[in-house]
């Protein structure tokens, strides 16, 4: 069943603004505005790995995009190189941090004429955007709401086991994992993974939902609680997850083993180890995560909050959301009541 679009959404204007990443890759931004022109600054929303900008627009009554527009914000959704709207590519966090996010921010600034913007960043959009901020590449961003993970990725023992031992086996046959294999498994490795997932996951009948859990965490499911999703969203997500390159998993495994983000490509603009370098940013961070996050454990954001707070006290904030996990913070049927007001409250604060 497809949810009816609420009347106010018909009055949105939506523009796709192409931009070119620093290495020439063609990417885009989606600007969504309500009936009235925005009265507040642009907010850039940055999605995670193997999804797309649309992940912020699940079929729930009120999405984070709706909530921001209702508050007067100018909403910009960034499709960076990890977006499944583009051909699968061997991206790294380094490339996103150096090439994608700085150009996305510059494009929003150029299109709107403002000098400062705010951002809501999720998962690998958050790690890579945090890298851009810490490297001093996005000084125009003054407030950053980060969900799930930023500087310190911490995962469960089972997730680390999979990353350490299963990843090299998969790599013999494929450069990508793809939760959409649950719907269509075109290759031998796709069939093997799908069989493995179907043998070990019995939490629901949605093959993509189960494969997402296998790919990104260690729960049943890993990225949300079924109780937090409406039926339409559980069905919708089948087409919202696709290829993610193993080279990204290799980088995040290195980061997990070190305990914080490290770069892997030797770009001179990025520090080798992000904790060892002084952050070149004055942005205020509001760190969020779900208490039940089974993709990156809540310890991830706690560590980063403590790291940033040691550098500047009483400036950054941390919210650990009870009864929420990883993506239901945005996709949850009750997120408009439970999480969006907190996110918006953080955007509304002035930095002093
Ligand atoms: Zn499910």
What does this structure look like?
- By secondary structure, this protein is of the alpha/beta class.
- The protein has two domains: 7-153 and 269-348, Alpha/Beta hydrolase fold, catalytic domain (Rossmann fold); 157-245, no CATH class.
- It is 37% helix and 16% strand.
- It has helices at residues 7-10, 64-70, 93-112, 123-134, 157-171, 188-200, 207-216, 231-236, 246-258, 299-311, 328-331, 335-338, 340-348, and strands at 13-20, 26-33, 42-46, 74-79, 117-122, 141-147, 176-177, 244-245, 284-290, 317-321.
- The protein has an eight-stranded mixed sheet with strand order 1-2-4-3-5-6-9-10, with helices on both faces.
- The structure holds zinc ion (ZN).
- Residues 204, 206, 209, 221, 226, 234 line the site of zinc ion (ZN).
- It comes from Methyloprofundus sedimenti.
- Keywords: FAD, Flavoprotein, Oxidoreductase.
- Its cofactor is FAD.
């Amino acid at each position: 069943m497809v949810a009816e679009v609420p009347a106010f959404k018909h009055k949105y204007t939506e523009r796709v603004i192409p931009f070119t990443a620093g290495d020439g890759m063609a990417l885009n931004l989606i600007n969504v505005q309500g009936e009235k022109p925005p009265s507040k600054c642009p907010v850039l929303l940055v999605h995670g790995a193997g999804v797309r900008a649309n992940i912020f627009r699940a079929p729930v009554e009120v999405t984070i995009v709706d909530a921001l527009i209702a508050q007067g914000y100018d909403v910009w959704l960034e499709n960076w190189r990890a977006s499944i709207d583009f051909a699968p590519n061997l991206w790294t966090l380094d490339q996103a941090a150096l090439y994608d996010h700085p150009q996305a921010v510059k494009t929003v600034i150029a299109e709107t004429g403002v000098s400062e913007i705010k951002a809501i960043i999720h998962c690998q959009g958050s790690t890579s955007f945090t890298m851009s901020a810490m490297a001093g590449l996005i000084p125009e961003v003054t407030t950053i709401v980060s969900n799930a993970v930023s500087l310190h990725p911490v995962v469960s023992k089972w997730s680390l086991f999979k990353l350490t031992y299963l990843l090299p086996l998969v790599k013999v046959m494929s450069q990508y994992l793809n939760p959409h294999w649950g719907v269509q498994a075109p290759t031998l490795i796709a069939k093997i993974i799908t069989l493995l997932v179907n043998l070990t996951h019995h939490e629901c009948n949605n093959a993509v939902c189960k494969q997402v859990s296998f790919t990104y965490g260690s729960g049943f499911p890993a990225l949300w609680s079924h109780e937090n999703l409406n039926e339409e969203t559980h069905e919708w997500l089948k087409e919202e997850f696709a290829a993610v390159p193993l080279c990204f998993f290799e980088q995040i495994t290195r980061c997990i083993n070190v305990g914080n983000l490290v770069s892997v490509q030797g770009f001179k603009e990025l520090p080798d180890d992000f904790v060892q370098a002084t952050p070149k940013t004055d942005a205020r961070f509001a760190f969020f995560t779900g208490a039940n996050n089974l993709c990156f454990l809540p310890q991830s954001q706690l560590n980063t909050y403590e790291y940033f707070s040691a550098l500047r006290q009483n400036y950054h904030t941390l919210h650990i959301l009870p009864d929420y996990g990883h993506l239901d913070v945005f996709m949850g049927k009750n997120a408009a009541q439970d999480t969006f007001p907190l996110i918006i409250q953080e955007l509304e604060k002035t930095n002093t």
